[in-house]
TrEMBL record:
Domain Neprosin PEP catalytic: 57-310
Domain of life: Eukaryota
Keyword entries, A-Z: Signal
Protein's UniProt name: Neprosin PEP catalytic domain-containing protein
Pfam families to which the protein is assigned, alphabetical: Neprosin
Signal sequence, start to end: 1-20
Key word Signal present: yes
Length: 310
């Protein structure tokens, strides 16, 4: 995976869980571009991370944008999620990338070496795969990618279940059509309450999710070995300024059924109980005129933005 896009993916949980008491949506002024003015008031860690991710960000080279909702305020933490994504496909070029994903964050405040996360979902990333197909992907790290973590199965980490029908990096044969038929990616990640304590990964395409693998507890240290402190749902794109990439289906949420959706959103507690998300959650839109999210209603929201966004 493009190193810059991978590191930018890390920025999201760091930005959001550094101030976990923030329970309202971020204002447009706070997140108007890839290097928001609000970072001037954030921690040295975040400023340093953004600089590391994109040292020439001011030049506008290959900006990366997010549009997300997230849960980050439970005093007991989070032990997993359930969600359904529409799958979409695009003819992207090398240097462009788009993803619909869930970020499970284990920490945020402190040095970069303390950044712990699992990211899972679908993406189109020609630089990684050598094609413009839609793939299932995972990312993990226990230390901000300093010594641990990787994309898909490029290092010891994700352990596929014997006989699993899909593995990280595999391509999907069919994708959704805006205002047409949908291909539903049903995901569930849950902390094993038994002896292993692993993060168990379930996936089903147009069917109930089945166990396909796990992230062993031994990969992670600190709080993330036992629970997450934040879980966020949404999209991410990265591309040259002159050739922007679509997010979701390429349609803004105002397009309704033509826009990509994430539905059946549920959060799992320490007892393994899944509770539907019945209220709106805080949002982050780093370029809201181009990539946005709708409010969550009945555990569902729309997200994304157009191919021609600048």
């Amino acid at each position: 995976m493009d190193r810059r896009m991978l590191m930018v993916a890390m920025a999201l949980p760091l930005l959001l869980v550094t101030d976990a008491s923030r329970s309202h949506p971020w204002s447009q002024q706070e997140v108007t571009d890839q290097k928001p003015r609000a970072l001037a008031n954030e921690t040295t860690l975040i400023r340093g991370l953004i600089s590391h991710i994109s040292p020439d960000a001011d030049s506008g080279a290959n900006p990366t944008y997010f549009a997300h909702h997230g849960a980050e305020t439970s005093p007991d933490g989070y032990y997993g999620f359930i969600a359904t994504f529409d799958l979409y496909g695009f003819a992207l070029k090398h240097g462009q990338g788009t993803a619909g994903a869930v970020w499970i964050a284990g920490s945020g405040a402190g040095p970069l070496s303390g950044a712990k996360t699992i990211i899972i979902g679908w993406n189109v990333l020609p630089a990684e795969y050598g094609d413009s197909r839609t793939h299932f992907f995972t990312i993990w790290t226990d230390d901000g990618f300093i010594k641990t973590g990787c994309f898909n199965t490029k290092c010891p980490g994700f352990q596929p279940e014997k006989g699993a029908h899909i593995a990280p990096g595999d391509a999907f044969e069919h994708v959704s059509t805006p205002n047409g038929g949908k291909q539903n990616l049903n995901l569930k990640v849950v902390k094993d309450g038994g002896a292993s304590g692993d993060w168990l990964v379930y996936l089903g395409l147009n069917r109930d999710p089945e166990l396909i693998g796990r992230f062993p507890r031994s990969l992670f240290t600190g709080v993330f070995a036992d629970k997450a402190v934040a879980i966020r749902f949404g999209g991410m794109v990265s591309a040259p300024v002159s050739d922007p990439a679509p997010m979701g289906s390429g349609y803004l949420p105002a397009a309704g059924g033509a826009a990509a959706s994430i539905s059946n959103i549920q959060l799992i507690d320490r007892n393994g109980r899944a509770s539907p998300v019945t209220q709106d959650l805080p949002k982050l839109e780093s370029k809201p005129d181009a990539y946005a999210v709708s409010p969550i209603e009945n555990g569902k929201f729309f997200y994304g933005g157009p191919k021609g966004a600048k």
